Amino acid sequence: MPRLQITSARALPVTLLLTFVIAFLPGQALGWTRLPAELMRLVMGPFGSLGVSAGQVIRPTPKPPGSNQVIDDEFVRHLQEERDNFERLYLLEQSRVDNLQGQLEQIQKIPLESLAATKALLTANIVLRSPTAGSGSVVLNRGANHGVQPGTVAVYNGVHLMGRVTDDVSGVQCTLLPLTNKANRLIECRVIPKDRPDLRPSEAPRVGLVPTGEGVFTDQPNAAEPIAVGDTVRLDDTSWPTSAQKMIVGVVESVEVNDLDPLRKVIVVRPAYQVSQVTQVVLRIEELDNGNGAEGGGSGGNGS
Amino acid sequence: MRWPVFAIFAFVLVVMQLSLRNVLTLQSLKQISPDLVACLAVFVCLFAHRTSALWACWALGVAMDLAPTDDDPSYFLIGPHALGYVFGGFLVLQIRTMVFRRKAITIGFMTVVFLLAASILAVFLLAVRSWYPEAQGYPALSEFWRRVLIAVYSGVMAIPLGMLLNSTMTLWGFQSNVSRR
Description:
The complex is a heterodimer.
Chain A (H helix, E strand, L loop, with lengths): L1 H22 L10 H25 L14 H36 L9 E11 L9 E3 L12 E4 L3 E10 L4 E5 L8 E6 L13 E6 L5 E3 L12 E4 L12 E10 L7 E6 L9 E7 L18
Antiparallel strand pairs in A: 1-2, 1-12, 2-5, 3-4, 3-12, 4-5, 6-7, 6-9, 7-8, 8-11, 9-10, 10-11
Chain B lengths: L2 H17 L1 H4 L11 H12 L2 H16 L14 H16 L8 H26 L10 H28 L1 H4 L9
Helix pairs in contact in B: 3-4, 3-5, 3-6, 3-7, 4-5, 5-6, 6-7
């Protein structure tokens, strides 16, 4: 036994020296230490698990806020329902944003100078359409409560005249008679040549357009009038409100010689936008005492 | 000293040290945990034969150096604990004749001394290694301060643990010719 102790005592400095050397070896030379460490982990693993479990009982790991709820199937279902609902609300809001963006674009396209006679701009959605005719009157979701009066002009993309409000104006709704409706009978306009857009309107050829009921207008001006396909036709009719003057009615689609009356030619004007193609328009509310504003309003009645 | 008894106690305390660490961790004080294994080393150093005590310190230190870590390192460095514990044990051996070894508070105080000595050597060793090429920086001072806190905390925890160990004295079979007080 004493020999063993002596051996042990001699071995200790050697062991310590060896340990000292190992402690200063570079990391690349210490890869072998993973083996004893793994063996140690193997031996201690099961007991360590027990200890960790016991530790969790004595001092549980603090959970993040809100994690104390019981995670059962019903709770998960509830969360999924909430997620789906929020997704629906998100899409709904996205749709509203798109809608508002469209309205804003519509308003931004209106020239500033034409706003002089306008008291307010009001975006209106088309809520009802005529079931029979494409040019039939439509119902808008704006009414007298919003300032709409009979004769209020409706435009699209700022300068494209779409029609005007009839006498049928309730508190929250109104009826719009499209420009192409036959009830509008005669619409006085000026034709601005496409190659001379700076021509003064007073010098431009004058035409009296008649809606055909098929979404276009026709007229038979003097054959000498310099009217060509592609010319822009703008409103110049005193029976319409001031805010509608010089608005675009359409573009000359065709110019043909009238076989029955060679001194005249037949022109067809087609609006850039039809009421049947759009979902919303901008109403240009005018002051009540505005001169010739509403005098022609509702002239066509319900022309559907 | 009966080595099987030492092995059992060492195994239990190393497992406790590794698995129950979170129970005794002081989250608000640099997340320090007591070194329970050091308490055992001090207990052995107070009563065992000098050579046996140093061997026990070395074995406990190696076990701590090879202890599983949270990550998966490419190697385990044997030395900081192994040499540190031996150095601490050597210091305890020098002053054990001057203290009341059967008092639990002695184990507490000696644990602080033991761990301070072990910390000096361990921090020195790790600081030197940080000078190696491709080695990361080592905040020696702040690490030493953290180890000082661990030493104090371990000293406090060593008092009740020392009481438990003292109650098992008969199992150990210590045969020291040093007079006990």
